[in-house]
Write a structure and sequence with these properties.
The chain is globular. 48% of the residues lie in helices and 15% in strands. The two termini are 12 Å apart. The strands form 2 sheets. Strands 2-3-1-4-8 form a 5-stranded parallel beta sheet, sandwiched between helices. The chain has a single domain, classed as P-loop containing nucleotide triphosphate hydrolases (Rossmann fold). The mean pLDDT is 94. With 214 residues, the chain is of the alpha/beta class. It binds zinc ion. Zinc ion (ZN) binds next to loops. Zinc ion binds next to loops.
Length: 214
């Protein structure tokens, strides 16, 4: 079961990926983790990736796919895996498809956790953070005991720039511009599955289980 997770930042795809990992006992793979592991272990591919990062450049898609192919060749991926955060662009999706097809493989499911932008902007806009101790809250879901004050240290809570509606909106615009071609790509392959991400975490997950099978 080879799965690609799609979904806007804040749509909750990471949470769903972790739930899939647990139920189906297949690893949840992020390219960030792969980079870190390879750099830490000083592998050939890790050294190459690091040279781009050190120069402040993006790691080329072909190299990222090489790192990914190396990771999914490991034994724990024998029954499949969940890719989270990759592919992000159409070029990455094509590189991945090409590399997989050389092994006679392909992505089985591209699960798109769909949440309207408005909901994401509202969710993020309700976040509050304590810059003193790092605690985070949400005005509706995890409110502090006293409005605007951190339970743990008594500091004032703020809305981070990253969570402000205009910042979130811009990030979502970039996401949609990059992701629409991916959605079209996986639709053509017949593997795209859209799930309604506005529901409770557990409900979203049961929809996914219905798609993947018990
Ligand atoms: Zn605090």
């Amino acid at each position: 079961m080879k799965i690609v997770m799609l979904g806007a930042p804040g749509a909750g795809k990471g949470t769903q990926a972790k739930m899939i990992e647990k139920k189906y006992a297949i690893p949840h793979i992020s390219t960030g983790d792969i980079f870190r592991a390879n750099i830490k272990n000083g592998t050939e591919l890790g050294k190459k990736a690091k040279s781009y990062m050190d120069a402040g450049q993006l790691v080329p898609d072909e190299l990222t796919v090489d790192l990914l192919m190396d990771r999914i060749a490991k034994e724990d991926c024998a029954n499949g895996y969940i890719l989270d955060g990759f592919p992000r662009t159409i070029n990455q999706a094509e590189c991945l498809e090409e590399a997989l097809s050389k092994k006679g493989e392909a992505i089985d499911y591209a699960i798109d956790v769909e949440v309207p932008d408005e909901n994401i902007i509202n969710r993020m806009g309700g976040r509050r953070a304590c810059l003193n101790c790092g605690a985070t809250y949400h005005v509706v879901h995890i409110p502090p005991k006293t409005e605007g004050i951190c339970d743990k240290c008594g500091n004032e809570l703020i809305l981070r720039d990253d969570d402000k509606p205009e910042t979130v909106g811009k990030r979502l615009d970039v996401y949609h511009a990059q992701t629409q071609p991916l959605i079209d790509f996986y639709t053509k392959k017949g593997v795209l599955k859209e799930v309604d991400g506005t529901k409770d975490m557990e409900d979203v997950f049961s929809t996914i289980v219905n798609i993947l099978g018990e």
